[in-house]
Design brief:
This protein has 23 helices and four strands. By secondary structure, it is mainly alpha-helical. Strands 1-2-4-3 form a four-stranded mixed beta sheet. Helix 4 runs parallel beside helix 18. The N and C termini lie far apart (about 75 Å).
Length: about 500
């Protein structure tokens, strides 16, 4: 047994974690291959496809999201020509790295105890079910969180090897996260403060490498915008984003309470697993030995809650970073239980205890997650998606069509038609945000529609908001050229989900 553990400790890190991460990706892909792109993910891919075809972001195509997510989609679309395949591949890769970084964190706690890895299995299942609970996996919060976990991994690798290249990679990953969603800049600031506070441990060359990596990637992005002529459009986006962030009236505290309640009701075991970390805070001896790492992880976790208060409203997927970083808290808490309570008493007892707990928790959480996936989410989601996609089959048969509803941009992915559309997601045309930019966007939107006169137009439930707008040749152009043809109702049948107008 001792020889087996010694061999596992020496060679296991080279194959156990990659194989485990690959298994998690395959399990997640098994579910997501049945899930077509939904609201956000479909729009990201639609704009990414235009970028991969040579269009300039914020110049030829505009949206009120950070540039990183579109560039990421365009990268995968360069590799995989089919948009749906590219989206599936992107999910697969990022789930692999999420599993890899979490597993590495577990491995650092105690490499000679493989039972610890079992604890990660229910966490991955939890992420699958939670991900589905938040409607789809293609959210900026998820991708940004994976980059932040990667930066955490890079710092740990530097502490082990003392190679500055890992700090440079850390800076690159922090920059990438902040390009995916701007609030992740807060996480980057926390990382740099952590390095500065422990400058004696990290030394100046480590800080310099991290800052260099961060600046290099941002300089590349600014150079890309300057070269493509879209830098003014990017600055316009930043202005719109800041105005959008402060324009809502949502009570975020109530939304936070609702989220925590819902999270606890669905996954009470997972929430209780955070308690060991909270208890470790009161262990002064352990805290003195691990003060900076404990405080760093906890502040990093708390910073994710800031995301909830930065938007104009509160959506469920805003909480994704909170859930992902709670896994890191659980790992820290388990390490405290292991070292301060179990290992101090008897190694054999600690082995048996961790093994039994890991298996027990795995069974409960996998059972809970599986029930949620099979009986609650999928029949409803697949039924609604099937009805909508069947309805869209006849829509995309038109020679040309224009989508004027904020969450239907994904349907361009099902068609090979060349469509001229500056706003695949016209959220910035008639929703919250800077009024000057919104008016300018609306004029562009109207001029494009009048110029191309598509055979068919899809709209949302309130088309009169913009159909009778004076930007459309005095407000009479739409009613003079288009007739209402069809509509799709919600499941309750009380409101049209979208309307079809034909020229």
């Amino acid at each position: 047994m001792q020889n087996f553990l010694r061999t596992l400790r020496i060679y296991g890190k080279y194959w156990i974690i990659p194989v485990f991460s690959l298994l998690c990706s395959i399990l997640v892909h098994r579910y997501f291959r049945y899930t077509p792109p939904l609201n956000d993910g479909g729009v990201f891919a639609a704009i990414g496809e235009k970028i991969s075809e040579g269009k300039s972001l914020y110049l030829d195509v505009w949206d009120n999201k950070a540039p990183g997510i579109f560039l990421l989609n365009s990268l995968f679309l360069k590799i995989f020509s089919n948009p749906l395949t590219a989206m599936a591949a992107m999910r697969f890769v990022f789930v692999f790295f999420l599993s890899f970084f979490l597993a590495k964190t577990v491995w650092w706690v105690r490499t000679s105890y493989p039972f610890l890895l079992l604890l990660l299995i229910p966490w991955c299942w939890f992420h699958i079910s939670t991900w589905e609970f938040f409607m789809s996996g293609s959210y900026t919060e998820f991708y940004g969180s994976v980059f932040i976990l990667g930066a955490l991994f890079a710092i740990r690798q530097f502490q082990i090897s003392k190679k500055p290249v890992f700090m440079f990679v850390c800076g690159l990953l922090l920059a990438a996260a902040s390009m995916i969603k701007e609030p992740f800049i807060i996480s980057a600031v926390i990382f740099f403060l952590y390095i500065i506070i422990q400058i004696k441990t990290f030394q100046l060359n480590a800080l310099f490498s991290a800052v260099t990596g961060f600046i290099v990637l941002w300089l590349w992005l600014i150079s890309y915008f300057a070269w493509s002529g879209s830098l003014p459009g990017y600055m316009e986006y930043l202005k719109f984003a800041f105005s959008y962030a402060g324009s809502g009236e949502t009570n975020h505290w109530i939304e936070l309470q609702n989220f925590v309640t819902d999270w606890y009701n669905r996954f009470p075991i997972f929430v209780w697993l955070i308690l060991p970390f909270m208890c470790s805070v009161f262990d002064l001896k352990y805290l003195r030995e691990n003060f900076y790492s404990q405080v760093f992880i906890f502040i990093l976790f708390l910073s994710q809650l800031v995301f909830v208060f930065l938007g104009e409203t509160t959506y469920s997927h805003y909480f994704l970073p909170v859930i992902i970083f709670s896994c890191v808290l659980i790992i820290q808490g388990m390490s405290w239980v292991f070292y301060r309570i179990l290992l101090a008493k008897n190694k054999l007892i600690s082995n048996l205890f961790f093994g039994v707990c890991a298996i027990f928790i795995s069974i409960l959480l996998v059972k809970q997650s599986g029930r949620f996936l099979i009986t609650e989410k999928y029949p409803l989601a697949l039924k609604a998606t099937e009805e909508r996609d069947n309805f869209m089959q006849k829509i995309i048969s038109y020679r040309s069509f224009y989508i004027a509803k904020e969450d239907l941009g994904r349907y361009y992915l099902y068609s090979n038609k060349e469509v001229a559309q500056h706003f695949p997601c016209p959220y910035a045309v008639y929703f919250l945000g800077d009024q000057t930019i919104k008016k300018s966007n609306h004029r562009t939107f109207a001029a494009e529609l009048v110029r191309y006169r598509p055979e068919m137009i899809l709209t949302g439930p309130m088309p009169n908001y913009w159909m009778n707008h004076p930007d459309f040749e005095g407000g009479h152009w739409f009613e003079s050229h288009y007739d209402k043809q069809d509509s799709m109702l919600t499941a309750e049948g009380d409101m049209a989900y979208f309307w079809v107008y034909k020229r």
